[in-house]
Amino acid sequence: MKRVSYAEFGGPDVLRLMDAEEPHAGPGRIRIAVRAAGVNPVDWRLREGQRLGAHPVELPAGVGQDAAGVVDEVGPGVEGVAVGDPVFGEGAATYAEFAVLTAWARMPEGLSFEEAAGYPSVVETALRVLGQVGVRPGQTLLVSGAAGGVGSAVLQIARERGIAVIGTAGPANQDYLRGLGARATTYGEGWVERVRRWGPVDGALDLAGAGVIRELVELTGDPHRVVSIADLGAPELGVRFSGVAGSVPDALTEAADLIARGRLHIPVERSYALTEAAAAHRDSRAGHTRGRRVIVV
Fold first, then answer.
1. Tens place of pLDDT per residue across the chain (297 aa)
2. Which H helix or E strand runs over 73?
3. Is the peptide bond before 86 cis (omega within 30 degrees of 0)?
């Protein structure tokens, strides 16, 4: 089979599409014929050699953790899924023709493989940080970097829970944020004052690592009301860095329910072939994504 991998840490050019042995489903696992794989910031952070404790890397390494496809192997002890079922979920080395998943759910009706591949880690992260930041119905949440995959999910899930949302993003994404029910403003000079005019902020999320931790603490009045998934220096300012996943199966179940009820939709901004994995990483790292980027197999 073909698989994207890297033998050394570095820039996007270390990625190679190579022949590899097919993985197989062990106990409690399934294997899928991959139809699409999600592109996440953690993918290029690991490729660069960033030390992320929850994701140890042993070289040579595959790339990717999210995927959607068709079940073609079911490991011992697995129930409720059969060969031929369309599923989406999380595993390892998903930029490949076949991948083993450790958590999965049946794809909601009407969802394409390309769309489904963009949800697993994004929704798990969104649900996790919403729980950690502790904002309740009737309160206001500020989301820095709100137009990407996690931000798109956070805004929609928060609104579903009765939480008011403010989102920051680039000028091109202001209408997109408003369409998700957020009050929207751009980055840049004066953004803190623009947010402050809307009233008190009860919690804040840093999803882009844009160097705004101090401002988020200022707006909330308490570092314990701020959570970051993108700034490794956040703990130096008393802010929680969230990098360890919660229950992925529970997140997938909730995602499938929200999607089926029309309460969650994350658009695919661009799709790439396996041969374009390096371009996908460059674009993801550059930011300013609206929704998700995916690899189509």
1. 999 999 999 999 999 999 999 999 999 999 999 999 999 989 999 999 987 656 678 899 999 999 999 999 999 999 999 999 999 999 999 999 999 999 999 999 999 999 999 999 999 999 999 999 999 999 999 999 999 999 999 999 999 999 999 999 999 999 999 999 999 999 888 999 999 999 999 999 999 988 999 999 999 999 999 999 999 899 999 999 998 878 899 999 999 999 999 999 999 999 999 999 999 999 999 877 788 999 999
2. strand 66-74
3. no
Q: What is the SS3 assignment for 163?
A: coil
145/155 Cα distance (integer angstroms): 11
Which residue from 243, 241, 229, 235 is spatially nearest to 54, judged by alpha carbons? 243
DSSP one-letter code for 218: H
Select from 252, 243, 273 the least CA-distant residue to 101.
252
Residues 6+ positions from 121 with CB-CB distance below 8 Å: 38, 40, 42, 65, 66, 90, 245
Considering the entire predicted model, what is its pTM? 0.91
Residue 113, helix vs strand vs coil:
helix
